[in-house]
Write a structure and sequence with these properties.
It is a single chain. The chain is mainly α. The protein contains five helices and no strands. The longest helix is centred in the middle third of the chain and has 34 residues.
Length: 155
């Protein structure tokens, strides 16, 4: 189990930046294929990096962890932490919306993406900490695996 999780984490760490870079490049280079308005194209290009890059990268990493939690059937945790982070994101989005008229468009749009990155990062951080501390089904399984592989008797 530890080896599988390590392989998934490594894969996400390698694939995540590649996918994020591809999404960013697609927006920067491909925006004119979808819209003719120069101001919209400029806005998309200003927001593509770092906002879309960071969002895509964090999404890739967090969904890998979330998939492991789903695989361990930790649905209560997923729903609880997912709901709490969603409420926090809505609060942050309301704050951004309240300042919408005073912010440049690119800044406002970047902040919207930023709320999603923050939500995913918090979800991943708290969930990873729980698993690494031996909590939840996945953490208990990891702990059992460590105990089974460690020498008995302390020598």
């Amino acid at each position: 189990l530890r080896g599988t999780l390590k392989n998934l984490a490594t894969l996400a760490a390698v694939i995540g930046p590649v996918v994020a870079a591809a999404c960013t490049a697609f927006l920067v280079l491909g925006a004119p294929a979808f819209v003719n308005d120069a101001a919209t194209i400029a806005l998309v290009r200003r927001v593509a990096f770092p906002a879309v890059f960071a969002t895509t990268l964090q999404l890739t990493l967090t969904t890998t962890l979330d998939g492991c939690l789903v695989g361990s059937r930790d649905f209560g945790w997923i729903m609880c932490v997912g709901s709490l982070t969603a409420v926090a994101q809505v609060s942050a989005l309301r704050s951004v919306a309240a300042r919408a008229g005073t912010l440049p468009a690119a800044t406002g749009l970047s902040l919207v993406f930023g709320t999603f990155v923050a939500r995913l990062a918090f979800y991943a951080a708290i969930s990873s900490t729980r698993v690494l501390a031996g909590g939840g089904p996945l953490g208990r399984a990891l702990r059992r695996g460590r105990e089974a592989s460690s020498p008995k008797g302390g020598s």
